Amino acid sequence: MKAVCWFGKGDVRVENVPEPKIINPHDAIIKVSLTAICGSDLHLYDGYMPTMEKGDILGHEFMGEIVEVGREVRNLKKGDRVVVPFPISCGRCYFCQKDMWSLCDNTNPNAWMAEGMYGFAGAAIFGYSHLLGGYAGGQAEYVRVPFADVGHVKIPADLPDEKVLFLSDILPTGYQAAEYCGIQPGDIVAVWGCGPVGQFAIKSAYLLGAEHVIAIDRIPERLRLAETFGGAETLNYEENEDVVEELKQRTGGRGPDACIDAVGLEAHGTGLGIMYDKVKQTLRLETDRPYALRQAIQACCKGGTVSIPGVYAQFVDKFPIGSAFAKGLTFKMGQTHVHKYMRPLLERIQKGEIDPSAIISHRIRLDDAPIAYRKFREKEDCHIKIVLKP
Ligand code: NAD
Ligand code: ZN
């Protein structure tokens, strides 16, 4: 079968690889009907994850039809259509039972390594390095889904793939980020990053009752989408030198009640700001250019919340803890507990409250993945969200 494989920094290829097989009674094999490239895949593409191996299959946002199930899978059968959540969760451990699915204790055999190197050990993730379990990803014709009997939602036939695919990751991620803000009536929310996660964070902030959302980025088509899809007011950080001051001005001097960092490691649109030091196994901030998380902390209203869906790892310096302390800020962050949100968000899609397909900018064949990765990385030709059809 064909699959999108990682071969090194900036080197992604479509290869012929063996088809996956059931190896555990709780597995299912899925024939992928639609998959997507995520901003998180760019961290792999940029070489930030040291535990990728040549030939690893990428992809953690995918859906499709079940073609085979292990003997213990009782709630799904051949022919069912499912969206697969990106964290692999056992559903039985202390954390899964508390609805903290992305912190599952049982699915990442390399958790010890993650704990040592990154200071965390959560659930395994499809196609996301050996540090996070080493499971093959879904940018492929077929994929093995472990714990297939946990948390997958069957998709009604009348909903097209494009409307539901993003339940696998970025829709719940934007939603959780907004939910973490504890939005009260009248609140103003600022969102750094108008990538797919930022777009859904903006939309979700309104769904959860925000009065007003201000979206920050530098890429015109993404800012435009934040206005048309999200209904946000926008701020181009290349046109406004002092984002923090500008936000204060636009919020009566107080600052936004909640700030969402939907940027993460990429930090300023170039990806050059954070370097991985292989010898020390640390991340270093290479520049003092605009830095989303720092701005979010500095702009946030006293007593407000900073919510961080953007991915960070290791040590990132120059964190203004003094400002956070003095203002009594609340921080919420982490990988998304996707399983928790899939069903309620599917209902919102069915009711027409949100149409996630509106953010898709490119529809391509699996064969064209290498060029799509490059363009998405460089934010060229209006690449906002790319879906691939195997
Ligand atoms: P993306 O790369 O498409 O979007 C990032 C956006 O941030 C870009 O539009 C970029 O121009 C903008 N940006 C860069 N620097 C900025 C700055 N200083 N101020 C404002 N905007 C800036 O990525 P995405 O798919 O939207 O994902 C965003 C982040 O969310 C990534 O770090 C990704 O890894 C993370 N993510 C986390 C989870 C989770 O479970 N927490 C899930 C999915 C994605
Ligand atoms: Zn993702």
TrEMBL record:
Gene3D superfamilies: Medium-chain alcohol dehydrogenases, catalytic domain, NAD(P)-binding Rossmann-like Domain. It comes from the Bacteria. Residues 196-266 form the Alcohol dehydrogenase-like C-terminal domain. GO terms for molecular function: oxidoreductase activity; zinc ion binding. PROSITE patterns: ADH_ZINC. Pfam families: ADH_N (PF08240), ADH_zinc_N (PF00107). Its cofactor is Zn(2+). SUPFAM superfamilies: GroES-like (SSF50129), NAD(P)-binding Rossmann-fold domains (SSF51735). Keywords: Metal-binding, Oxidoreductase, Zinc. Residues 25-150 form the Alcohol dehydrogenase-like N-terminal domain. InterPro entries: ADH-like_C (IPR013149), ADH-like_N (IPR013154), ADH_Zn_CS (IPR002328), GroES-like_sf (IPR011032), NAD(P)-bd_dom_sf (IPR036291). Belongs to the zinc-containing alcohol dehydrogenase family. This is Alcohol dehydrogenase GroES domain protein. It comes from Desulfocurvibacter africanus subsp. africanus str. Walvis Bay.
